[in-house]
Amino acid sequence: MNSLRFFLDSRFGLVAGGIGALALVSTILARPQTAAPVAAPLNGGAERIGEAVCIACHAPQNKQFSHTQHAGVFRLNPKNEKEKLSCEACHGPGSNHVKEPANRGSLIGFTKEWGTPVAQQTAMCLACHEGGERMFWPGSPHASNQLGCSDCHNPMAKISATGLLKKPTINETCYTCHQQQRAEFAKRSHMPVNEGKLSCVDCHNPHGSTSKALLKNDSVNETCYNCHAEKRGPFLWEHAPVRENCLNCHAAHGSNHDKLLTVARPFSCQQCHDNTNHQSSLYNAGQLVGGGAAPSTRIIGRSCQNCHSQIHGSNHPAGARFQR
Questions:
Q1: In this structure, are residues 19 and 26 in contact, taking their beta carbons and an 8 Å threshold?
Q2: By mean pLDDT, which of 32-46, 52-66, 106-120, 302-316 is the weakest?
Q3: Which parts of 31-94 fold into alpha helices (H)?
């Protein structure tokens, strides 16, 4: 009571002897409390029947399930009453399902064909897996596109080494929907995802994040710096597009140009540096390979970076042009 009175006094300028903070506090506390909404009974008010009854009919499913992490937890080391329910912890009470096996409303199913609303499927999973990496699932792009947990995971079979995924690896699971990124990883210059040195979740959190593209960090640059720490700086001489966003010059997943560049050098540089005699005279159409004139020697090798080698930033006192 005293702490609430202090809050009201400091927040609204109430003083004892003025409006009367105590009177206001008493009014607030006297208001009838609205009861929390009661969840509808699962599966039409069905009753628990126990795992043994489920296994009697679903022997193949039990054989697959027995190898999973869920089975180990539910059967060998349950930490609460819900986990002791095993099958019914996820699918809900099964008595109505026993009476009417063909009635799909009598059980919570985790496939598109079963018909259980995605929100209800997700709620059953989040009952145990809420928080942590799934803190930002509500409102995430995947949730907004009506994806359910079972679109990526298969809790009934051990198909993947970790995560109970529906495919053998994280990348293959993501490729189910993200075909464009799969094509980019097959390009000449690409992140080493197909080689197994990286996976999609090294950069992205598929369960939701506070940044665009489900990045695990606050920005593209912070994500890149996890591996490319030498590009972080701080630098005495900073290159503005580098500091702004790595994607100004590089493709995130793959490119047919060297170093994942979105445009080959020197054209990548000339997108910004096109208003001086240095660039326009050296790199005109005639001096390019196949352009008709003698190719400029300065487009060979790393092109602009033959001279401006420290293009991401320099700490040399004379490095204003990123040459050292």
A1: no
A2: 32-46
A3: 51-57, 59-65, 69-76, 81-84, 87-91
A 10 A CB-CB count for 315 gives: 12
* 45 confidence band (pLDDT: 50, 70, 90): confident
Q: Please state, in angstroms and rounded to a whole number, the distance separating the CA atoms of residues 52 and 188.
A: 54
Q: What angle do CA 8, 11, 15 make, to 5 degrees?
A: 55
Nearest to 156 by CA among 148, 165, 147: 165
Nearest to 140 by CA among 200, 206, 201, 199: 206
pLDDT at position 15: 41
Q: 217, 226 in Cβ contact below 8 A?
A: yes
Q: How far is CA 74 from the centre of its chain?
A: 28
Residue 180: both structure tokens together? 């464009």
Q: Name, in order, each residue with C-beta under 8 angstroms of 58's C-beta and a sequence gap of 6 or more.
A: none
Q: Can you give the pTM of this predicted structure?
A: 0.79
Q: For residue 313, what are its two tokens?
A: 């930033």
Instruction: Report whether 200 contacts 229 (CB < 8 A).
Output: no
State percent of the chain over pLDDT 70: 79
Give the separation between CA 7 and CA 24, rounded to whole angstroms.
12
- Name every residue whose Cβ is closer than 8 Å to that of residue 255 and which is 6 or more positions away in sequence: 184, 187, 188, 189, 190, 261, 262
pLDDT at 1 (0 to 100): 47
